[in-house]
Amino acid sequence: MAIITLTTDFGCEDTFAAQMKGVILGIAPGVTLVDLTHNIPPQDILGGALALDDAADAFPPGVIHVVVVDPGVGTSRRPLAVATERETLVGPDNGVFAPLLARRRTMQAVVLVNPACRREPVSPTFHGRDLFAPAAAYLAAGTPLHDLGPPAGGLVGLDTPQPRFAPDAIEAHVLRIDRFGNLVTDLRGEDLIRWLGSAPRKSIAFEAGSLRVQGLVLTYAAVPPGESVAYVGSSGRLEIGLHGGNAAAASGALRGAVVRVTRR
Amino acid sequence: MAIITLTTDFGCEDTFAAQMKGVILGIAPGVTLVDLTHNIPPQDILGGALALDDAADAFPPGVIHVVVVDPGVGTSRRPLAVATERETLVGPDNGVFAPLLARRRTMQAVVLVNPACRREPVSPTFHGRDLFAPAAAYLAAGTPLHDLGPPAGGLVGLDTPQPRFAPDAIEAHVLRIDRFGNLVTDLRGEDLIRWLGSAPRKSIAFEAGSLRVQGLVLTYAAVPPGESVAYVGSSGRLEIGLHGGNAAAASGALRGAVVRVTRR
Amino acid sequence: MAIITLTTDFGCEDTFAAQMKGVILGIAPGVTLVDLTHNIPPQDILGGALALDDAADAFPPGVIHVVVVDPGVGTSRRPLAVATERETLVGPDNGVFAPLLARRRTMQAVVLVNPACRREPVSPTFHGRDLFAPAAAYLAAGTPLHDLGPPAGGLVGLDTPQPRFAPDAIEAHVLRIDRFGNLVTDLRGEDLIRWLGSAPRKSIAFEAGSLRVQGLVLTYAAVPPGESVAYVGSSGRLEIGLHGGNAAAASGALRGAVVRVTRR
Questions:
Q1: Residue C62 — very low, low, confident or very high, per pLDDT cuts 50/70/90?
Q2: Cα(A40)–Cα(A169) distance, rounded to whole angstroms?
Q3: Which of A19, A23, A42 is closest, CB to CB, to C180?
Q4: In terms of DSSP bridges, do strands C88-92 and C64-68 run parallel, antiparallel, or are they unpaired?
Q5: Terminus of chain C with fewer CB atoms < 10 Å: N or C?
Q6: What's the whole-model pTM score?
């Protein structure tokens, strides 16, 4: 009972994602399909990469993740399948797998060139349906990875925001804003705690746009409604929130904005 | 072949709902997953409660409904599993099950404290993934309810709008506005008919914001396009619509607005 | 392992689509459910018809497509099930199947009147749940089509935009705008190529609102970022796009707008 997940920037108005599912079910009828999200902003490779990286650990070993955020569709960018010690990834060679692969071991990576594992004719604008969906389905149905094509060699990387650490401050960045308006940053909770050392959590101060927060707590409900709050969210990253409100709106901070962390 | 449904305020941009599914499929691989909706307004317990109450009767007996509208996540509010004569409910003890339980028999309710039925470490901000999803999955896989934790005793209630009945008028309220702009009210069709007695349906008048409607009909298509219309909708509640238009926009009535019902 | 797809204008805020799934799973527990889309604009029969027509060929033979875009629900419009050489269609007799049926053979069409294949009582406002979902589920579970009701005879048609061909120009139309802002037209790629004859693809000029495009290419990535582009999209239709931008916003062209095609 294989699982295939889909992550795309196709949105939910059109039938693009459904067409991928139709193709998959025609090749691997018993497969379980899960949408990670189809609302990655159009052509936002980093957004797709972070969504996959956030969600991957929740799935059981053997899962196949298909990611189609693919501004280079129809050009010479390579179509890939990549096996790690835990899952298989299918999608374009544009860096969309880089954050997850940075914390996995890459066991095998192939370029999808086997015409027997495509849907012909391959539309030059819709490799999700004609190339990536069939590849995932054949893998789910038991085709070995090396049957899909030759070894890929080095993969395209991705320029991912990284916090800058200094002894007296960290410059972190807003990676994305979630539905509740929480600011999700590029600062891992474990790195923050390591930097903090023996200083108490109450001593940390955060600045995001016009919001100031004093102290790191366990969850946004730990402060009274209406107060801003800093905590390590469910993806293990520092988040700035506003209990019962919208931190993004209140702070004016946009994606990419600096979140300054100091001790005092 | 168990069914697990998910109702959350997570939206469809992030991967939160998908992470819950990944956890469930890791524990109960053959389960059928159905999204009720992930678009409950953030932290709107009443909205989540009504969505569940509206949808529950369409599902076969034995279904497991997980509802995560959980402003108190990470605080002392209790995590629950509740068995009725028809389904099992999993979610926070904040009243989100109250409207459905008001018309069911509660057979058993337990507090989810068994560490063997959690995903460790439990994130203080994402009990949906680490606590409610595993509980539902273990239930689907055959774990008896009483293995999840001790009896819960009394549950938290919910202050739900109720119509006020007088001999010459009913004061009902807009519970929610659906996608078509129809005003869905807290007045049950059967209660309206009982109040009406032997008076003809044509004699009822409705006022919602600036809209006036004369007569109760079977469906909005029973009046000419452009006319406002009152009927009992698919959830058994009085609705005010506008044939081919948007009653909410035309009336100016918002959620909570009074819908006045009189006979003349 | 039957597949049932759902296409509706119910949106994703309410539980309407989920209720249909609950009913289906109660009758046909092992069925695979796929959402084509629930975001057809309210009561937009043409939009629903095009979504089905775009997606149908991606699904394997034997699939059952349920389409509920049904402004006439509760009136005398007939509920249908239609078998083609490839799939079965279930929905209202309002033309929503017409574009797909125009390129299929209709093998059998029946009116859904068998009370044993409904969910009683049938809500006059929600045939999706009480009439179409059960019909599809009984078909998936093996009930023969002719058990659902008597032959339907002629079906309601649909007035679909069609390009007008002249020797020196084609007047095409914007059928819909996709999530990327691409203008999807009613001009089939094969008809455009036939009209073009031996003239080179570079010689075709396109006008859509304020956008001018010279030449037909294979994919939007074939032009530099910021340039407008004309190509045959994944549904086989001419599309006008803007590489890295939004052609609909840039052109000002709305649905129904003329796209003028000339040679020079």
A1: very high
A2: 32
A3: A42
A4: parallel
A5: C
A6: 0.94
